[in-house]
Design a protein that fits this description.
With 341 residues, the chain is α/β, with parallel strands linked by helices. It has two domains: 159 residues, D-Maltodextrin-Binding Protein, domain 2 (3-Layer(aba) Sandwich); 131 residues, 3-Layer(aba) Sandwich (D-Maltodextrin-Binding Protein, domain 2). It has 15 helices and eleven strands. The chain has a six-stranded mixed beta sheet, sandwiched between helices. Helix 6 links the parallel strand 6 and strand 7. Helix 2 runs antiparallel to helix 13. It is globular, with a radius of gyration of 22 Å. The relative contact order is 0.17. The N terminus is likely disordered.
Length: 341
């Protein structure tokens, strides 16, 4: 038999559920007939663009009201242009999704002069997969291993100075004393990889999924050699390739490398604007959770060589917030490394 206290708790729970229902219904009704913009901080054709387009294609199947989703490429400043736009200009109503560089949250925490946003105030919707970066060379390069990068200059094609494709090799030059020469100005990783294959540069640093998505034959045919990978752990595809974190020579340098390379855990994460009504944020998060379990989405990702390693939006939000807990001394050291670039 229920006690008076138990009956009170049950009625309280029922009242809370009823109070939530109007908000949920409004969020569901809101998206009917709407257009949602997926703003991608990269040019068309690269892995980040391909991943974002797959998310746009499949998440709509799980958003009540089935809005139309339009992909808008907004490259520039290593995704800073897109992040600034979403934070400061885009409508704050849940009709905008963003896909930017995994290094964007840390750059903002370090006070990048072009970062006009607070990553913690974005409403993070979810992560489809972590992202491992690699530094590789073409088969004709004289560099056979990471040790060669300590002894000789190796030219790498890159995009903008703020992008991870330029940042990670530059950080290795500063901390690990490699001799990578960064050639900036390529419009995206596909263009830089093409330059590598033509012999304009020896190598390129990009995400491992970009290599598999854009040029899958290179991996199977041994066209490229991966010298080092960037992340907190080795990718399952590359068990014999060291991480830049492992190669740090002392605990202080290792701590710095861990902070910088932890961006791999942010990976392919998506967010909406600050100020979006929370019931709409929740609707987008639950749609994302359903999408990453959708067999059709998983099959489409596998088809382009993509990984699926999801994280709920609430957990991504908490992970981003952890940047504010780093010690001032560690932040100062990481910032000094960034400022060298």
């Amino acid at each position: 038999m229920f006690s008076a206290k138990g009956i009170t708790q049950v009625w309280g729970l029922a009242f809370s559920l009823c109070a939530c229902l109007p908000g949920l219904a409004q969020a569901q009704d809101f998206y009917a007939g709407k257009t949602v913009d997926m703003v991608v901080g990269y040019p068309p054709g690269g892995s980040n663009d391909l991943y974002a387009r797959l998310v746009a294609q499949f998440i709509v199947e799980h958003i009540p009201g089935r809005p139309r989703i339009v992909v808008q490429n907004m490259p520039g400043g290593g995704s800073l242009l897109a992040a600034n736009h979403i934070f400061n200009v885009a409508p704050k109503d849940g009709t905008v999704l963003g896909a930017v560089s995994q290094g964007i949250p840390l750059q903002a925490r370090l006070g990048h002069p072009q970062a006009r946003f607070d990553p913690v105030k974005f409403n993070w919707v979810g992560r489809s997969a972590p992202s491992s970066n690699v530094t590789m060379v073409w088969r004709d390069s004289s560099a056979r291993s990471f040790e060669d990068a300590l002894r000789k200059e190796i030219t790498l094609g890159a995009t903008g100075a703020g992008s991870t494709v330029a940042l990670y090799p530059s950080v290795m030059n500063e901390i690990l004393k490699t001799r990578f020469k960064i050639i900036l100005g390529y419009k995206g990783s596909p263009e830089a990889m093409l330059a590598m294959s033509r012999g304009e540069v020896e190598g390129h640093s990009t995400t491992w999924e970009a290599v598999k998505a854009v040029n899958p034959g290179w991996v199977k045919e041994g066209q490229v050699r991966v010298l080092v990978q960037h992340g907190l752990s080795r990718h399952a595809d590359l068990p014999d390739v060291p991480t830049s974190v492992e190669l740090a020579r002392n605990p202080t340098d290792r701590a710095v490398m861990e902070v910088i390379m932890s961006a791999a855990e942010v990976g392919k994460s998506y967010f909406t604007t600050p100020g979006a009504p929370m019931e709409r944020v929740t609707t987008l998060r639950r749609a994302f959770d359903a999408m990453v379990k959708d067999p059709a989405f998983i099959a489409a990702m596998r088809k382009i060589g993509g990984d699926v390693g999801p994280m709920r939006g609430e957990d991504v939000q908490a992970m981003i917030a952890q940047l504010d807990t780093l010690s001032p001394d560690l932040i100062a050291r990481v910032k000094s490394v960034y400022n060298e670039q």
